[in-house]
Amino acid sequence: MDTEVLSTPAVLILLGPPGAGKGTQARKLEEQFGLVQLSTGDLLRAAVAAGTEAGKQAKAVMEAGDLVSDDIVIAILRDRLADPDCARGVILDGFPRTDAQARALDVLLAETGQKISAAISLEVNDDAMVTRISGRYTCAGCGEGYHDTFKTPQTKGVCDNCGDTEFKRRADDNAATVASRLRAYHAQTAPLITYYDGQDVLERINAMGGIDEIARGLATIVKGAMR
Ligand code: AMP
After folding, report:
1. How many CB atoms lie within 10 A of CB 161?
2. Which of the listed residues 13, 45, 134, 185 has the most CB atoms within 10 Å of its CB?
3. Please, where are the H alpha helices in 34-184?
4. What is the pTM of this model?
5. Predicted pLDDT of residue 2
6. Distance from C-alpha of 30 to C-alpha of 53, rounded to nearest angstrom
7. Quick one: CA torsion of 196, 198, 199, 205, rounded to 10 degrees?
8. From the first residue on, what is the mean pLDDT of each consecutive set of 10 residues in the chain (227 residues)?
9. Which element (helix H / strand E) includes 195?
């Protein structure tokens, strides 16, 4: 797919419960608009794997499906946002998740003269999320997402995108942890929908359809927000 250049670097936020498709759609927006996907979940998993101090503190919290402390997550996000590639524009996937994180992001962006282009709420039914999450896995090589029922590789065991034959499943993608993650979403993250509505940057999209249909809807929203 050709990359479409936006007139100014976008700052997009994807809001939605676990399993809503934030990661999948962020990857598509990254490809289509040349933006950088910033997933705090990925950054935290990398910190856990690397055994950093932040990773050690985050590990048990993530395994329980609770939220990692604002201080840790904000510090990780701040560092990543300062990397030169982020100047192309970013898609925040899984951040902010609390009121304190949303306010910290406003401050961070103000410091660099940036502002939020759109906060897009991916609207789904909770009931479907457990099925979506329980069956999902990714290519170990390129991170392409798959699902036991909804999206299998064209050739069994071979990634469509990069040809790798290794796949991985997340440790926290099990029914018990998903229930905690959904609770955390509704208690602490869903109120941000009202927060961004108040800033006049909120967009909503029905995210119960097919991946490509939702991607088309999101692309339309992004282009509209950047006009
Ligand atoms: P995700 O990959 O976005 O589903 O995140 C996986 C886990 O990482 C979450 O269940 C949390 O434990 C932690 N996490 C990711 N992003 C955040 C965040 N912004 N604030 C707090 N915890 C987070």
Report:
1. 15
2. 13
3. 40-50, 53-64, 70-81, 99-111, 126-134, 175-184
4. 0.92
5. 65
6. 30
7. 40
8. 73 96 94 95 96 96 96 97 94 98 97 94 93 92 92 96 96 89 96 98 96 96 88
9. helix 191-198
Residue located nearest, by CA, to atom 14 of ligand 1:
41
- Ligand 1 pocket, Cβ-based, cut-off 6 angstroms: 18, 39-41, 44, 61-62, 65-68, 73, 94-95, 97, 101, 172, 181
State the Cα–Cα distance between residues 185 and 16, nearest whole angstrom.
8
Q: What is the pLDDT of residue 61?
A: 96
Per the annotation, the verdict on 88 as an active-site residue is no
pLDDT for the residue 139: 96
Span from the CA of 41 to the centroid of ligand 1 (angstroms): 5
Q: Cα separation of 127 and 124, whole Å?
A: 9
> Is 155 exposed, middle or buried (CB count within 10 Å of its CB: 0-12, 13-18, 19+)?
exposed
Please tell me the total number of residues recorded for the chain in this structure. 227
DSSP letter at 174 equals S
